[in-house]
Amino acid sequence: MSLSGALNSAVSALNSQSQAISMVSDNIANASTTGYKTVTASFESLLSSSSSSAGYSSGGVAVSARYNITEQGLLTSSSSDTAMAIDGNGFFVVQDESGTTYYTRNGDAVIDDADGYLTINGYYLMGWATDQDGNVTGGETAATLSKIDTASLQSVAAATTIESIDANLPADAAVGDEFTTTMDVYDSLGTASSVTVTWTKTGENTWTAGFSDATLATDSTVTTGTVTGSIDITFNADGTLASTSPDPATISITGWTTGAEDSTITLDLGTAGNADGLTQYSSDSDTPSVDLKKIDQDGLAYGSLTGITIEDGGNVTAAYSNGETYVIYKVAVATFANADGLTTESGGVYSASTSSGTATLHESGLGGAGSIYGGKLESSTADTTQEFSTMITAQQAYSAAAQVVSTVSDMYDTLMSAVR
């Protein structure tokens, strides 16, 4: 019984060490694989229940694979605008063509030229749609997760709705004096036009602002829209704005020749009692004039998509030819109660299991989730030096077990010779 037990024990050692070598081989092969987590051999002794002090029955050894899924890899810089990495706890959420959800630490995302989706190793990267300020719309739930479609906003344009004017109207102007300035406006199709503002002093501390029809910004001889509305302005004795009529001050532009929808523009002329918009102070000049300090508006010229970048925090930002940038998606981070219990799949992805528990979704850096860094990739956790050391140990153990097999064989031969 002892010889056969020794043989069985040695065979189990051969089998276990060969599996350990396989794990080392996989680790070395994936030393350059982004987001790869090492697998290590966990050995467990097997003892026969019949073993006693009077007689020993060998049991051998068993091996199991331990996946070091939660081990943090080194973050390295990447030249890709859509590369990202998680520093800390969590996984990127991806889906395959059938809609099955997986999780990965590989953040080497690329734009699928065929349809514009962000993909990682052929899996669709999942995130939440946002407004242009980067706020998630619809809630941060699994139900609102969607494939990140970089082509969802191929172009942008916006009509002017607010025009902010910071200017001084000369207090030393005579009643009836007129002064002109211009302001830019955009229609809903992104076409730029100009509107001339005529400032007329109507009395002591009172003015009127009149507006010309809109003309094409590139050709003032071409009328693009009809402007209606005028503004009566009153100043306090200290030169600050007192009131406007109407309040708020608004004008309308109708009949856009470009085919755009009608516009209503609110004029932000400042706060009553303050000098943060229109003021009326003396110009101290023989030829008074309007001192236009600043004029801003919120409209946008037409711009086409020029690039996609994933930034720190997981914001997917779209850049446009008009110089504007908008956040269009936010990458989700999934955490698990026991991430080491995830099931390892091919392609560097994991699937949830009863051991791992279900995923909890977070924004970057919130709720215990790690932080997403743009322009980074997480390196493989395989250390070739350590793997070679483990391989040598496994090789020596394998050779020793093979020697036991050879010794038992010799002992059997001796026994058989004695019988003959």
From TrEMBL:
Stored InterPro entries: Falgellar_hook_FlgE_sf, Flag_bb_rod_N, Flagellar_basal_body_rod_CS, Flagellar_FlgE/F/G, Flg_bb/hook_C_dom, FlgE/F/G-like, FlgE_D2, LlgE_F_G-like_D1
Record's subcellular location: Bacterial flagellum basal body
Record keywords: Bacterial flagellum, Cell projection, Cilium, Flagellum
Domain (Flagellar basal-body/hook protein C-terminal): residue spans on this chain: 375-417
Domain (Flagellar basal body rod protein N-terminal): residue spans on this chain: 7-37
Domain Flagellar hook protein FlgE/F/G-like D1 span(s) in chain numbering: 85-127
Domain called Flagellar hook protein FlgE D2: residue spans: 171-290
Top-level lineage group: Bacteria
Functional description taken from the UniProt entry: A flexible structure which links the flagellar filament to the drive apparatus in the basal body.
PANTHER family for this protein: FLAGELLAR HOOK PROTEIN FLGE, FLAGELLAR PROTEIN
Similarity-based family: Belongs to the flagella basal body rod proteins family.
Name of the molecule in the record: Flagellar hook protein FlgE
Gene for this chain: flgE
